[in-house]
Amino acid sequence: MMAQNDDKKNLPQDPDKLCKTLEVGSLILGVLLTSVQIYTTLRGDESK
After folding, report:
1. Cα–Cα distance between 17 and 12 in angstroms, integer?
2. Torsion from C-alpha of 8, 14, 20, 25, nearest 10 degrees
């Protein structure tokens, strides 16, 4: 039906593995957001 269904086939059906995948995903998101904040802060300091 949708492209998302193909992605779900690749994911393991084991709930524990799914939880770990979500944990890793949120970790990566947190790191990305932190690095973006640091980058914008550094850029803000440069422009002053």
Report:
1. 7
2. 0
Q: State how far the alpha carbon of 26 is from the alpha carbons of 11, 34, 36, in Å.
A: 16, 12, 15
Whether the predicted model's global pTM rises above the 0.85 cut: no
How many angstroms separate the CA atoms of 2 and 8, rounded? 11
d(CA 48, CA 45): 5
pLDDT band with cut points at 50, 70 and 90 for residue 11: low
What type of residue is 3?
A
